[in-house]
Specification:
By secondary structure, this protein is mainly alpha-helical. The protein contains four helices and two strands, in the order ββαααα. The chain has a two-stranded antiparallel sheet with strand order 1-2. β1 and β2 form a beta hairpin. The longest helix is centred in the last third of the chain and has 42 residues.
Length: about 170
Amino acid sequence: MSKVNINVNNKSFTIACDDGQEPRVQQLGKYVDERFRELNQAGAAPNESYTLVLTALVIADDMFEAKDQAEKARMQAAASTPRGPSPAEIEAKIRNELSAAYDNHIAGLNAEISRLRQASQSQGSNVADLTKARAEAEAAMKAKEAEIAAAVDAMTEKLENVVKKLKRA
């Protein structure tokens, strides 16, 4: 704890403050003294006590006015800042993208099945070949479905993280 001497109306006052705050306390003391002198020279008060109270009121008014201006500036800044998409809009977009990706994978798998069927038929429609082609198509389809499921899980996790971040904001 430190002590600082300030002067108000040619009177010295010792003020206790945290270490390192001495320059700030001296700056504030000078400001109070300046405001006191302005009011005293204007003859705004009949005595020193009344002038000190009036000085405190004027400084409080300055503070409230500064707070009001800061709040107005904050509100203007908030109003002028473009708002991003809502969590629901982001979720819908991701769901649409996942759905489109899934549909594309399914269409590719169906095309592969058709190709394998045609290949099987062009080779004489042998039952063994057809069984083999069907097994290959099913294996390819299962592999693609696992790939799609992993992609959906990853995108769902990302979506949940984005929604959590947006809720915190």
